[in-house]
TrEMBL record:
Residues 4-100 form the Rieske domain. Coiled coil: none annotated. InterPro entries: MocE_2FeS, Rieske_2Fe-2S, Rieske_2Fe-2S_sf. This is Rieske 2Fe-2S domain-containing protein. Keywords: 2Fe-2S, Iron, Iron-sulfur, Metal-binding. It comes from Marivita cryptomonadis. GO terms for molecular function: 2 iron, 2 sulfur cluster binding; metal ion binding.
Length: 102
């Protein structure tokens, strides 16, 4: 699987996320409180609303539409109405850039 250059490390504040679109897919890239980067699908599994406007709290993303939450490290759906986990993708940092494996 190829590694894709998604953004600069300083594009994402700690405990925040950015949207990244690649080909016909959309992703969310997170900057955790401990300085690590994570990537999930960018759309909530409940009604396919983009997570980019959601609230990041520690290691969870809250969907802006119905307040479903996910652990962005594992993709696990933590609060209804979402009951399907998000897909997650490996990330790495090289030269101040966040790369994702898709």
């Amino acid at each position: 699987m190829p590694w894709i250059d998604a953004c600069a490390t300083d594009d994402i504040d700690e405990e925040d996320l950015i949207r990244f679109d690649h080909e016909d897919r959309t992703f969310a890239i997170y900057h955790s409180p401990d300085g690590d980067y994570f990537c999930t699908d960018g759309l909530c599994t409940h009604e396919h609303v983009h997570l980019e406007d959601g609230l990041v709290m520690e290691y969870e993303i809250e969907c802006p539409k119905h307040n479903a939450t996910f652990d962005y490290r594992t993709g696990e759906a933590k609060r209804a109405p979402a009951c399907v986990n998000l897909n997650t993708y490996k990330t790495k940092v090289e030269g101040g850039r966040v790369l994702i494996e898709v």
